[in-house]
Amino acid sequence: MEGSLGFLFLTFLIIPLPHFFIFCTGHTHSQVRCIDTERRALLTFKQHLIDPSNRLSSWTADGDCCHWVGVVCHNLTAHVHQLHLRTFPPPVWDDSMTDEQYWAQEEAYERSWFGGNYFENTLIPSWIFGLRNLVSLDLSYNDFQGPILVDLQNMTSLRHLDLSENHFNSSIPNWLYSFSHIEFLNLGSNNLQGTISSAIGNLTSAISIDLSYNQLGGKLPRSLGNLCNLREIIVSYNKWSQEISEILESLSGCVSNRLEILDLSYSQLHGHLMDELGGTISSAIGNLTSAISIDLSGNELGGKLPRSLGNLCNLREIRLSSNKWSQEISEILESLSGCLSDRLEILDLSESQLHGHLLDELGVFKNLIQLSFQDNSISGPIPVSLANLPSLTYLDFSNNHINGTLPQNFGQLKNLVKLVLRNNSISSPLPVSFGNLSSLTYLELRNNSISGPRPVSFGNLSSLTYLDLGNNSISGPRPVSFGNLSSLTYLDFECF
Question: Which is a Pfam family this sequence falls into (predicted)?
């Protein structure tokens, strides 16, 4: 982080708030005074921070740390129980945002850091281990390196441990599996290696486990399926090299009743969800009745998607891109059109070797926000029913074989922010109703067979920042209304 500390946050509970900082007043209802050794430890910490906003001005040498901003002491013992100095993680790229919006958020995030170099290229400072009454320890988004220190094993009161976004490069230590009180464990985005022990089944209080973006391998232990309180399993971007059916079967225990988020994306998984005769290899995916999000993207999965996926009525997100489903797109949509039709918000089947035509059942998914079918072999026209998706903000059908005319009612998609239809065979003039897409910021229709004059109605797209209609057959003079596109940062000059 180039000589700066991303953030240090030790607390009882993470509470997401719409601000860059999570602070509390630190006042307690009792008259306890902070313990001197803990007060001095906090002052040592402050000395090595750059605090441009002077937010720690209450942290004075002769003050009571139980009344400092950001510090909460236990009402009875006076031990520091919570320490709130967190900034939010950096912004995550969203396909609906512009480059300017992303970099504005990135700049705001960087301004929110506490600066300093006390922790740069070093191990976790030893004074932290003196705060043994902490129930939550968050050291994420820093630059800690080396193994996960054994000193942590004495902090057995922890319920929340977040060491993500660092450079720890050891295996997961065995003592960590004995933290029976841990509820939230995040070791993601490090360089952890080795395998996961079956002893992970001892984390019986666990609600969320995130081991994503590491170098872990071997097999996911079956004991994960016995963690009855588990709501989130996020183990993406590792090297499991395992049959998907084996994993799903291991999750058929009590965890299947409560699991809400399952992320196994980009994990070198292989196999089919169904056998060659169409029967389900494992019923586990159909048993995940509480699932809200399933992500199996970026693996080597093939065959057909089981119809039982459509019976998971709580699903909001299905991400199955970059696999080898080799299935009719209409068959998939039909299987999902039951109880999910008014609940599904994100459907990503891009780069999945899908074929066939889009039919009218596409219009039944009334709450879809993001629809990604790019990089397949889908053919035929875009159905008129697509305009019945009022919540749609992101639509990408690029790199397919879609032909025919664009629906004249396309302008009904008033919330559409990004539309990408490049590299298809779409023909005919552009619909006049395109001018009603008032939220549109990104429009790419390059490499089609669109003809006719430049649409005057495009001048109504005041939010548009990116416009590419290149390599079509659009002709005629540029309409005067195009002068209203004051937000444009990219314009394909081949057409305009």
Answer: LRR_8
CATH superfamily of 354-496: Ribonuclease Inhibitor (3.80.10.10)
Q: Look up the pTM and report it.
A: 0.84
Residues of the chain with pLDDT under 50: 1-30, 112-121, 275-282
CATH, domain range 1-193? 3.80.10.10
CA–CA separation, 11 vs 24, rounded Å? 11
Question: ∠238-191-147 over CA atoms, to 5°?
Answer: 135
**pLDDT score recorded for residue 274:** 64
CATH 3.80.10.10, the chain: domain bounds: 1-193, 354-496
pLDDT tens by residue, 411-463: 999 999 999 999 999 998 888 899 999 999 999 999 999 988 888 888 899 99
C-alpha 297 chain-centroid distance: 13
